[in-house]
Design goal:
eight-stranded parallel beta barrel, two-stranded antiparallel ribbon, globular, 355 residues, alpha/beta
């Protein structure tokens, strides 16, 4: 029986185990959206993960949705990430960069030169976003033109190339959690009637074009995609997600991607199982629970539901999580109050196993 502690070949990248560190926003970037020494320490401490997937990294200036998030669209940013990948590799780890365009989630105060958030359609998200000058109501985003959509696809491909140049083993495209790719997929945020919207086939087109462009740029074997069917986060409403996601996976299946990463967002596992059957490559799952993915949830590997399981908050509090899972604990308790802000050190200072 295959377990979470067995190695796996991820399209040519050898992983020591099947436990991934899920992507999590940190808001700790330095000047110019660069990775810092703390970034290096944070990821290197967690190099025992079979695969680290980084926090969301914006592919362009307008792709930023939160304060102090990093980018992969400048030479300075690429150089800063090289220190991170070198440290992770020196510790025996493997690391993919998650490329995330926030779309309508953001605010003009986070952007330079009079830029404003953009999206598939001019549909304002409910609620507020935290900024460096306090909470701000979301605004109505500007609808991307056809030419701008094509440029955005190119921005994803360019950021993927920069990621490889920075030493990353590959990239994960963030098509989940209500950000730009998800905004094109969802019927309440994509009201277009052109070739980019109006039907399931049209609404998946942006996601498919991004995946194809990135795979062409760096190789499908270094490209993963994250999706969260039915996830209501950031104001998404997908009352019947099955058709659009099965159509999406049907389109990307022939490409030979490194993996498909499904964040379960509904209590119905049938769609997860259907996508697992449909996708022939490595299948990664972030399990739906009442709280953070728990110590016993890696049984999805034993049961053949997925090839890799990703952990979020539990990895923050337990940098040596694979060893703790194998030993059955003990586990440090995640404390979200230590994870963000200028003096947040808790996610690098948790004691190691046996300390």
């Amino acid at each position: 029986m295959t377990t979470a502690f067995d190695p796996i070949d991820l399209s040519g990248t050898q992983l020591a185990n099947r436990i991934a560190m899920a992507p999590m926003t940190r808001s700790r970037a330095g000047d110019g959206g660069t990775a810092t020494d703390l970034t290096v320490q944070y990821y290197a401490q967690r190099a025992s993960a079979g695969l680290i997937i980084t926090e969301g990294i914006q592919p362009s200036v307008v792709g930023q949705g939160y304060p102090f998030t990093p980018g992969l669209h400048s030479a300075e940013q690429v150089g800063s990430w090289r220190k991170v990948t070198d440290a992770v590799h020196a510790a025996g780890g493997r690391i993919f960069a998650q490329i995330m365009h926030a779309g309508r989630i953001g605010h003009p105060v986070l952007l330079p030169d009079g830029l404003t958030p953009v999206s598939a359609s001019p549909v304002k998200a409910a609620g507020q976003v935290y900024t460096h000058v306090g909470p701000k109501d979301f605004i109505e985003p500007r609808e991307l033109t056809d030419a701008e959509i094509r440029q955005t696809v190119a921005d994803f491909a360019s950021a993927a190339r920069n990621a490889v140049d920075a030493g990353f083993d590959g990239v994960e495209l963030h098509g989940a959690n209500g950000y730009l790719i998800h905004q094109f997929l969802a019927p309440n945020t994509n009201l277009r009637t052109d070739e980019w919207g109006g039907s399931d086939e049209a609404r998946i087109r942006f996601a498919v074009e991004v995946v194809k462009a990135v795979a062409a740029e760096i190789g499908a074997e270094r490209t993963g995609l994250r999706i969260s069917p039915g996830n209501a986060y950031n104001g998404i409403d997908e009352p019947a997600p099955d058709a659009v996601y099965t159509a999406l996976v049907q389109e990307i299946e022939p490409l030979g991607l490194a993996y498909l990463h499904v964040l379960e967002a509904t209590e119905i596992r049938e769609l997860t199982l259907a996508l697992r059957k449909q996708f022939s490559g490595t299948f990664v799952i972030n399990v739906l629970t009442d709280g953070p993915t728990g110590p016993d949830d890696h049984s999805v590997i034993d049961d053949g539901i997925a090839d890799i399981i990703s952990y979020g908050a539990l990895f923050l509090a337990n940098p040596d999580l694979p060893a703790r899972l194998k030993a059955g604990g003990p586990f440090n308790t995640p404390d979200p109050s230590t994870f963000f802000g200028g003096d947040a050190k808790g996610y690098v200072d948790y004691p190691a196993l046996g300390a």
